[in-house]
Amino acid sequence: MLHTLSLLVRNHPGVLSHVAGLFTRRGYNIESISVGVTENPELSRMTIAVGGDERVVQQIIKQCQKLVDVLSIKDLKYDESITRELAVFVVKTPTNQSRAEIIQIAGVFNARVADMSETSIMIEVTGNQRQIDSITRLLAQYGIEEMARTGIVALTFPSKRKPEDSSERE
Amino acid sequence: MKLTGAQILIESLKAEGVEAIFGIPGGAIMPVYDVLFDSGIAHILTRHEQGAIHAAEGYARTTGKVGVCMATSGPGATNLVTGLVDALMDSTPIVAITGQVPTHLIGTDGFQEADIYGISIPATKYNYLVRDVNKLAQIVAEAFYIARTGRPGPVLIDLPKDIQLAVTEYVKPKPVSLPCYDQYFQEINETQVDKAIQAIEEAERPVIYVGGGVIISGAHQELYEFAKRTHIPVTTTLMGLGSFPGTDELSLGMLGMHGTKYANYAMGEADLIIALGARFDDRVTGKVSEFARNAKIVHVDIDAAEINKIVYAHIPIRGDVKKVLQVFLKKLDKAKLKTYDKWHKQIQEWKTQYPLTYENSEDEVIPQYVVEQIYEATKGEAIITVGVGQHQMWAAQYYRFQAPRSWVSSSGLGTMGFGFPAAIGAQVAYPHRTVFTIDGDGSFQMTIQELATAVQYHLPIKIAILNNGYLGMVRQWQQLFFKGRYSHTFLGSPDFVKIAEGYGAVGMLITKKAEVRPAIEKALETDNTVVMDFRIPQEDNVFPMIPAGGTLKQMIG
Ligand SMILES: Cc1cc2nc3c(=O)[nH]c(=O)nc-3n(C[C@H](O)[C@H](O)[C@H](O)COP(=O)(O)OP(=O)(O)OC[C@H]3O[C@@H](n4cnc5c(N)ncnc54)[C@H](O)[C@@H]3O)c2cc1C
Ligand SMILES: Cc1ncc(C[n+]2csc(CCOP(=O)(O)OP(=O)(O)O)c2C)c(N)n1
Ligand SMILES: [Mg+2]
C-alpha cells in the first residue's frame, strides 16, 4: 500500500542526500519525493510516497526518525490530510475536434489550458494522485507528447490534527 | 580571542577531553597538524589510514570514550571508509576528521579532492562539511555528542583547508540539543517492565540473550545481579562477550552460527527470551521463521528501529539497558521468582552431552589449544583483539572473557585486518595492560604494516598468528558447501619472524605443541611488540556450525 510520509527536516545542502541515502541503503522504494522550504527558512518539508506493507513502513518511519536532520515524521492518513500533485501535459491536437474534447476533459478536472499551438495543447492540473492518474489516462488517448509531474505535497487538515501531532518540534 | 579554524578544532578536541589521535597528515590537513604539533594531544602516526581508524575503534571499544582519527583529503579520506562502516555496524563512537580542498575548489576536481561528505553518508551516523569557520566549534561539540550518545557510531567532519586557516572569534559551543534525540530521553515505560516480569514469573524455560548494547551501556553489573536473582541462564552474542563472566554456572557461552550447542538448544527450546541490547543478527537467528519459535520475546533496545526489525517482540522495552535493568531490579523485590530446576537440569544435560571441545594432539599445534593457553597464561585478564575468520571464532569460543571491554572483534562488518590496529588503540589506552591480538595469517597481512607503528611507539602488543596458510574460514565453506574446491584460498606463508625482525619487533616460530606455552610466557615477559607464528594444521575447522540461514537441525559438528 502507498503511504504518504511528511517529514520536517533541517534545511541544508546535504539533507536530501541523507534522506534519499537512507532509502537507497535500506532498499526502500520511493514512489515520489518533493521538497520545499517552510514558513521557517531553516526547515524544509519533505513529502515522500512509499510503497510497502505495514511492517516495512514502520521500519522506514523509525529509521527516518533516527536521522539527525529529521525533526518530525508523520504517516499521513488519506482521509485526514490533503494531498496534491501538479502535472503538466503537452497533448497532440491534430484536429479541432480533439482540441475541443481535451478542453472539455480539462474542465472536468479543473485543469487550466496553459498554452496552445496549431498541433498541440498544454494542460496544467493539480489534484490528488487518483485525479492525476485519471486525467493522464484520458489524455493518453490523444497522444501525450510530454509530461511532468511533481510528486506529492501533503498536510494534515487542521481539524484532524491530534494533540501528539504538535510533536512537530520547531 | 581570535583563533584560526585549525586552532578552534584543536581547542574543541581538548574541550572534549581527547587524549590521543590516530592519523596521517597530508596537504589538505597541514594547518591542523601544525597546531597539533605542540598542542599536548598525543598523536599516533599509523602507516595506513585504515590502521588509524581501526586503532581509534580499538581505543573506543576498550575505553567507552570517543576514538578520534585524522586524515588528509582524497585518498587519505577514502582510506577511512572501511573503518567508518565497521564502526557503524558495531555501534562504535568515532569522530573522523578529514582535510578537504579549499572551498573555492570544491566541485572542480581539485588536486586530491574526493567527495568524502557524499561518500560517507551511508557510512556514518552523521557527517559534516564545514563551510563556515564560525560554526566549527559547535559542529565539533555536536559531532562528539552524536558519536557517543544514543546508539553510538561514527561521525565525520570534513574540513576545507581555507576554513582551517580562516580567523574568527572563538566562542565556546552551546550545550548540544537535537530534536531527533528526544526519543532517547523518554522515560522507561514501567508497564512494559511489569509485563516482562510477569512473563518471567510464568516462564518455564527462560533465556537471557545479551548483545553488545549491554557493554555499550555499562550494564554488566546490573545484568549479573538480574541473572543471579532470576536464575535465568545467559547467552551472549559475539559482540556481547565479556558482559557476563564466561565461567559462571549460568553462562551458556556464545550463541549463533558458531555458538555452543547448549546455547543454541536453549534458545530453540526457550519459552521466554529476554534480549538485552542485541539485534537478532542473521548469524544468530539462522532461518528467522524457525528461530525461537516457542518463545515469547522481550526486547530491550535503545534504538526503536531495532525493535520488530527482524523478529516480532511481544514485549518491547525501549531505553538504555542499564536504566531498564535498574527498573527490573527494583521491581524484582515483589516478584514471585522461580528457580527453574527442570530447565537447569535439562541445560546441564546438554552441557554434559554436547560440551564445547576439540580434538587435541600430542605434538601438533592445535588452534583451540593455543587460545586456551593464552587464556590461562593471561588469567583471562588480557584485552583480546582479533581478525576475521576461523581464528576469530576459536578465540571467541575458548577465551572465557570475564570482563566487559576486553574483547574487540569486528563483528558486524567482519573486517579482516581489524585486529592488529585495534590492538594499537587498546594498548595506547591501557599502556600497562596485556593486549593480545589473535590473528589469522590472511587478516594480519591486511594491516601488517602497522608493525612499524607498534614498534615506533613502544607498544608491547603480542600478536598470535594462528597460521594455517589459508583464508581458512572461506576454505572451510569451500570444503563443506563447494565440494572441496579450494578456489583461491591458499596463501602459503611468508617468513613472519623475519618480517617482525625487519620492523624491529620480536619474531617467534612455534611448530610443536610443547613450544606453545613457553612461547606465550616468553612473549609476555618481552617488553616489545612480539609476533608469534603458530603453525596450526592447514585444514582444521570451526565447530559447531549452523550453516548460514539454517536451523538447529542442520547443525554440524
Ligand atoms: C566470521 C563471523 C562469524 C560470526 N558468527 C557469530 C556467531 O556465531 N554468533 C554471534 O552472536 N555473532 C556472530 N558474528 C557476529 C554477527 O555478525 C553480529 O555482529 C553480532 O551477532 C551482533 O551482535 P549484537 O546482536 O550483540 O549486536 P551489536 O551489533 O553489538 O548491536 C548492539 C545493539 O544494542 C543496542 N544498544 C546500543 N547501546 C545500547 C544501550 N545503551 N542500551 C540498550 N541497547 C543498546 C543497539 O541499538 C543494537 O541493537 C559473526 C561475525 C563474523 C565476522
Ligand atoms: C576485508 C575482507 N576481505 C574478505 C573477507 C572474507 N573472508 C572472511 S574470513 C576470510 C579468511 C580469513 O583468513 P585468515 O585471516 O587467515 O583467518 P582464518 O580463517 O584462516 O583463521 C575471508 C577472506 C573479509 N571478511 N574481509
Ligand atoms: Mg588463515
Short descriptors:
A: 170 residues; alpha+beta; Alpha-Beta Plaits; 2 domains; 4-stranded antiparallel β-sheet; 4 helices; disordered C terminus; B: 557 residues; alpha/beta; Rossmann fold; 6-stranded parallel β-sheet; binds flavin-adenine dinucleotide; binds thiamine diphosphate; binds magnesium ion
Write the layout of secondary structure elements.
The complex is a heterodimer of chains A (170) and B (557).
Chain A: E1 2-10, H1 15-25, E2 30-37, E3 43-51, H2 54-66, E4 70-76, E5 81-92, H3 96-108, E6 112-116, E7 120-127, H4 129-140, E8 144-149, E9 153-156
Antiparallel strand pairs in A: 1-3, 1-4, 2-3, 5-7, 5-8, 5-9, 6-7
Chain B: E1 2-4, H1 5-15, E2 20-23, H2 30-36, E3 42-45, H3 49-63, E4 67-71, H4 75-78, H5 81-89, E5 94-100, H6 116-119, E6 126-129, H7 136-148, E7 154-160, H8 161-165, E8 167-169, H9 190-202, E9 206-210, H10 212-217, H11 220-230, E10 234-236, E11 251-254, H12 261-269, E12 272-276, H13 282-285, E13 296-301, E14 315-318, H14 321-332, H15 341-353, H16 367-377, E15 383-386, H17 390-398, E16 407-408, H18 419-429, E17 435-440, H19 441-444, H20 451-456, E18 462-467, H21 472-481, H22 496-502, E19 506-510, H23 513-525, E20 530-535
The structure holds flavin-adenine dinucleotide, thiamine diphosphate and magnesium ion.
How would you describe what is shown here?
The complex is a heterodimer of chains A (170) and B (557). By secondary structure, chain A is of the alpha+beta class. Residues 165-170 of chain A have low confidence and may be disordered. Chain A has 4 helices and 9 strands, in the order βαββαββαββαββ. Chain A starts with a strand and ends in a 14-residue tail after the last strand. By secondary structure, chain B is α/β, with parallel strands linked by helices. Chain B has 3 domains: 2-183, Rossmann fold; 186-353, Rossmann fold, CATH 3.40.50; 367-535, Rossmann fold, CATH 3.40.50. Chain B is built from 23 helices and 20 strands. In chain B, the strands form 4 sheets. A 6-stranded parallel beta sheet of chain B has the order 3-2-4-5-7-6, sandwiched between helices. In chain B, strands 11-10-9-12-13-14 form a 6-stranded parallel beta sheet, with helices on both faces. In chain B, strands 16-15-17-18-20-19 form a 6-stranded parallel beta sheet, with helices on both faces. In chain B, helix 11 (220-230) runs parallel beside helix 14 and helix 16 (367-377) packs across helix 17. The model of chain B has no long low-confidence stretch (mean pLDDT 97). Classes of the chains: A alpha+beta (170), B alpha/beta (557). Chains A and B meet through helix 1, helix 2 and strand 4 of A and strand 6 of B. The site of magnesium ion has 8 residues of chain B, from helix 19.
